Amino acid sequence: MQKDRIQIVDALRGFSLAGIVLVHMIENYIGGPPPQEAMAATNRGIIDGIVQGFTGLFIQGKFFALFSFLFGLSFFIQMDKASKKKVSFEGRFLWRLLLLLGIGCIHHLFYRGDILTIYAVLGILLIPFYRMGTKPIVILTILLFLGVGRYIIFALFADQSLFLGTAMDLESPEIAAYFEILKHGSLSDVFISNTTQGHLMKLDFQLGVFGRGYLTFGFFLLGLLAGRFDFFKNYVTNKKTIRKGLIWSIVLFLVSGGLMAALFMIASDFGKAQVAFDNWLTIFAMTAYDLSNIFMTFILIGAFTLLFIKIKGERVFMKFAPYGRMALTNYVGQSIIGTFILYGWGLGYIGELRNLYTFGIGILIILLQMIISKWWLQKFAYGPLEWLWRSLTYFKFFPFKKS
To answer: Is the pTM of this model over 0.85?
Structure first.
C-alpha cells in the first residue's frame, strides 16, 4: 500500500462509485431521457416507488458530484506534490487527461453517459486554477452552483438544444429511436449510435440548460479548495466545524428542496400539465433542484467524515478503500456488466426489470467488485486500468505485481 495515500479519500471514492452504479442500474444505463412509456414496467408497486424515491432523494445527482469533488481534490494533490518537489506538473497532467480522454472514448462506446471524457475536457480548464487565488475560485464556484451557466444558455438559445438542433421534448423521435437501439440493437449498433449522436446528446446535457458540466466543474473547484485547506488531512481536529457544516447543509437542503418542489408545482400548473423547458420558472426550478443535490452532497461528505472518525465507522468504511483505489477499472467494468444485463446485445432486460431488482443487481455488482478489488490489491500494486494509465502518463513501466 502506498504510504502517502489518504485512506479516507480512497474510501470516499469507493463509496461514491457505489452510489453511481446504483443510479445507473435504476436508470437502466440509458444515459438519456427514456420515452415516456418505456419504463412503465420498472415501477410495479409501492416497493419500486420507495426504491425510486430513495434513489432520487439520496443518490441521484449526488454521487456524481461526490466523484467530481474527489477528482478536483486528486488534481490538487498531484499538482501540490510536484510543486513541493520543485517540479512543474502541468504538462504531465495535460497528457494524463488526454490518456483519460482515450479511455473515456472507449467506455463511451458502451455507455453514452460516460463521465471520463467530460472529466478529461473540463480537467484541462482546471489546470490554471491551481495557481489562482482562493477568492476568485470561491466566487466562480458559487456562481456555477447558482446556475449562471444555465441562465446564459437559456437567454441565448431558449429551449433549443445546442448540438442536436431540436427542442427538448421527451416524445421526440430521436429519443424513441435511441431507446429502440438499446432494446433491440446489436453491439455495433450501440457503438455507432454512441459515437455519433451520443456525443452530441452528451454535450447538450453537459453544456445546455441541464447544466451538468457547470456543476461538475464547480465540484472540481470545490475539491481543489478542499485540498488547499487540507480538509482531509485535518478532518479529525476539525470535527466541530464539520458537524456545524453538516447541520447547515441539512437546513439548506430542506429549504432548497422545498423551493424546488414549489417551483415545479407552479410550472406544471399544480400537476395538471407536463413541465416544459421553455420558461424561466422551470429554469429556476432546475437550479433549486441542483442546489438541493449540492447540499445533499455536502451532507454525505460531512456524515461520511464524522462516521469515519469513529473507530467502528472507520472499520466499516475502510472496506470501500480498495474499491476506490481501483475506481477507474471498476467504473468501466460496472458499465460493461450493467449494459450487458440490460441492452439488447446482451440479456436485453432494459425497461423490464422492477426497480427493486435493478437496485439489488447494483448491490451485487458493488459487493462483487469490492471483493475482487480487495483480492486484486493484495497481489498487485494497481488496478489494470490504473496501472496502464500511470505507466503511459510517465512513459515508465511500473512494477505491476507485488513481490
So the answer is: yes
